[in-house]
């Protein structure tokens, strides 16, 4: 592949910047601590489905059309939804993204729609495997790369004529893999930093608590003198 993929990759990076800003706002919300603790309420799950489903739709709307396909970061929303809150949230976000992708038509609409749903499902299974916790940066980025490889393989299997499927995949696979991996990396680093901040805060609170207990256990000066 030549350098012709660079313009597409640059556009995808711009899309990711918007998605990352939205994701950052989520990490600063009141519901995010319960997400990190692995115990999101039903209300929180619904919010996450709508939020990441909306990001998936945005990834489709802002994509780049090429040979009946759309170069996009649609799968990033369902992937992150599953990694954060489990398979039902991931599938829900994926269904929203898939429904919108179907409405756009094109020869890759079925492959792309199915991939969005599987992205949420597989992300949720990883969440379960890691005991309802975000898997971490390395696993998340590797998952994003493998998910886009799966996307390309599904395109080759489902899209006909086959020659056109090969032409699409050969043009879009690199920018889509790099863009989704980059977006996942940035989001995973945000989660990692928030986890670190929470741990430091918990250690600080525990230390202050022990200091207060020690101070409370020391007899006051007047009591010492009177004894």
Automatic annotation (TrEMBL):
<protein>
    <recommendedName>
        <fullName>Signal transduction histidine kinase 5TM receptor LytS transmembrane region domain-containing protein</fullName>
    </recommendedName>
</protein>
<feature type="transmembrane region" description="Helical">
    <location>
        <begin position="79"/>
        <end position="101"/>
    </location>
</feature>
<feature type="transmembrane region" description="Helical">
    <location>
        <begin position="9"/>
        <end position="26"/>
    </location>
</feature>
<keyword id="KW-0472">Membrane</keyword>
<feature type="transmembrane region" description="Helical">
    <location>
        <begin position="46"/>
        <end position="67"/>
    </location>
</feature>
<keyword id="KW-1133">Transmembrane helix</keyword>
<feature type="transmembrane region" description="Helical">
    <location>
        <begin position="107"/>
        <end position="130"/>
    </location>
</feature>
<dbReference type="GO" id="GO:0005886">
    <property type="term" value="C:plasma membrane"/>
</dbReference>
<feature type="transmembrane region" description="Helical">
    <location>
        <begin position="172"/>
        <end position="191"/>
    </location>
</feature>
<feature type="domain" description="Signal transduction histidine kinase 5TM receptor LytS transmembrane region">
    <location>
        <begin position="31"/>
        <end position="193"/>
    </location>
</feature>
<keyword id="KW-0812">Transmembrane</keyword>
<dbReference type="InterPro" id="IPR011620">
    <property type="entry name" value="Sig_transdc_His_kinase_LytS_TM"/>
</dbReference>
<dbReference type="Pfam" id="PF07694">
    <property type="entry name" value="5TM-5TMR_LYT"/>
</dbReference>
<feature type="transmembrane region" description="Helical">
    <location>
        <begin position="137"/>
        <end position="160"/>
    </location>
</feature>
<keyword id="KW-1003">Cell membrane</keyword>
